[in-house]
Amino acid sequence: MQREELAAYIDHTLLKPEATPEDVAALVKEAADLGTYSVCVSPSQLPVETPESVKVATVCGFPSGAHHSAIKAAEAKDSVAKGADEVDMVINLALAKTGDFDGVEADIRAVREAIPGAVLKVILETAALSDEEITACCLAAEKAGADFVKTSTGFHPAGGASVHAISVMNEAVGGRLGIKASGGIRDTETALALIEAGATRLGCSSSRAIVEGA
Predict the structure, then answer these.
(1) pLDDT number for residue 60
(2) Where is the active site (predicted)?
């Protein structure tokens, strides 16, 4: 894969709580230089000016997902009003772990209905879920009208993206929903393995090293 092709998979990400506006400006410059698909920043950093070629993504209910659905929906709506093209929301993991997948669907649907014109990605935190739970969450996201399912926040102690998780997600909704791998992707080899397994988008903070390794 050529560098330009690989860069086009990437949401160039900066979600450290201590990130400053200057850090975000540097992120945008690097994204434009590398040719990444988007930048992904915290909601408090919005609005962000980017070149027309670089989309703006943000997060919602981040990083725990343990927020009321109405709060997630309001946060997402505010972010889109401030220029976000895409929103990556975190599911309520407690609902998934107790088998309440109707509740997972309702939580996602609340955000979907708040941002009808934006791309919605649903973060499952796959390292904390069984294969059966991952599959059920993917199907709940599809029913709720999400555009993507996504592995991880990158903040959970259980870990980030894995080829196995992407394979499970791909089997569940591949070809119907986008699949985003994020969390712990730091080199080209890992990025390419995740794409081979079915990832259609990558969330990375080490984007330069990944792209330049191609």
Answers:
(1) 98
(2) 88 (proton donor/acceptor), 150 (schiff-base intermediate with acetaldehyde), 180 (proton donor/acceptor)
pTM score of the predicted model: 0.98
- The token duo for 83 is 């220029």
For 118, the domain range is 3-212
The pair of structure tokens assigned to 79 is 């972010």
Q: How confident is the model at residue 196 (pLDDT cuts 50, 70, 90)?
A: very high
CA angle 6, 11, 206 (to 5 degrees): 75
Q: How far apart are CA 190 and CA 207, in angstroms?
A: 12
Q: For Cα atoms 47, 146, 94, give the angle at the middle one, nearest 5 degrees.
A: 95
Domain count, the chain: 1
The residues annotated with a catalytic role in the active site are 88, 150, 180
The CATH code of the domain that includes 109 is 3.20.20.70
